[in-house]
Amino acid sequence: MHRFCHLLATGFYVGHLRPPGTLGSLLAIVLIALTFYVSILGKFFVFVALFIIGIIVSEYYEKYHNERDASQIVIDEIVGYYFVLMFVSFNMINLLITFFLFRIFDISKPYPIKQLESIEGGTGVMLDDLIAGIYSLGIFHIIKVFI
C-alpha cells in the first residue's frame, strides 16, 4: 500500500526530481493528451476521481513521512493544472500561457490560496492547487480577450 500511495502522490516519482512542482505540472499535459478524445464530462469525472485519490494519497504520504505538504507530493499540481487544461483548447500558445499562470499562482499563493494550506491533511494539499488553477483559468480567459 505504501509504495502505491507513494507512486501516485509523487506523480510516478517525478516529485523526487527538481523542480518537483514544475515537473509535476507538466504531467498534467500528458494526462490531458491521454484524455484528448474524452468528452468534457468524462474529463470532469477523471478530475474528480484524481482529486479524491489525491486527497487520500497525499494525506497518507504526509502521515507516513511526518511532513506537511512535502514538495515531493505533486499529484496536487497534476490535478490542479489538469483542471485548467480541461477548459482550454489544446495548442502550444494556450499551454504556455496557462502553464506560466498556473505556476505563478501555485508559487506565489495569493489570497486565499496560502490560507488553504492550513487545512489539515490531503484536503489542504489538493485545494490550494485547485484554487491556483481556477485563478489561472480566469486570468487566461481575460488575456484571451485581448489576444
TrEMBL record:
Q: Which residues form the signal peptide?
A: none
Question: What GO terms describe the biological role, i.e. biological process, of this protein?
Answer: lipid metabolic process
Q: Which keywords appear in this protein's UniProt record, sorted alphabetically?
A: Membrane, Transmembrane, Transmembrane helix
Which Gene Ontology molecular-function terms are recorded? Answer: phosphatidylglycerophosphatase activity
Do you know which CDD domains this protein is assigned to? Answer: PgpA
Entries under Pfam families matching the protein: PgpA (PF04608)
Per the record, the domain of life is Bacteria
Q: Where would you find the membrane-spanning parts of this chain?
A: 20-37, 44-61, 81-105
Q: Which residues form the YutG/PgpA domain?
A: 8-143
Q: Does the keyword Membrane apply?
A: yes
Q: What's the name of the protein?
A: Phosphatidylglycerophosphatase A
